[in-house]
Amino acid sequence: MSAPAEAFETAATARENRGWTLRDIMLVVVLGVVAGFLYWALVQAWTWLSVLAGPLGDITQHVLLGGWLLVAPIAVAIVRRPFAGVAAEILASVIEVVFLGSAVGPLLFVAAGIQGAGSELPFALTRYRRYGWLQYALSGALGAGFVFFYSAFRSGWYGTDLFWIRLVVQVLSGIVFGGLLAKPIVAGLARTGVVDNFAIGRDRAARAD
Length: 209
Description:
The protein is built from ten helices and no strands. It has about 210 residues and is mainly alpha-helical.
């Protein structure tokens, strides 16, 4: 490779490492759209589960809550850019509300932003450099915890007998379904090679050199 060509490639790589690319944006949009449909399906599952649970039906929302956090750590782990998790969650909520008619309405955008911020925080604190089991677990725990307190305010859970049970169940759900589950999904995508052109692929290639 000639010196000018090598310099151009180095400059292009540096630009990619500094900020968002169009490819990153498109991937987050795709992830958000797919998650929106998956989240809508999860709502249907919750509706049936709450009926089957009878008097405990209201608690089932906390059991499944972690599923609504899943896209944030996946998006962050692949593109490794600030606000990737927040953006993916909000996009998913837009699909749920605008295209699938979620009964929650526009308030879902607020909840999505809150849970996205909580889910992304553990990765942001490492400057998007560490993606171990601990970061994924904390992602699910904080995403579930952050949005719980917002939901508790809206739903009047403060001071009720089940407040702490709700919180514990929701955080555990976040850890399992919204955090730990994301890691093998990301690893599986990485093994297929479909994300090689994103930050995760470049990092894997650099470690292999």
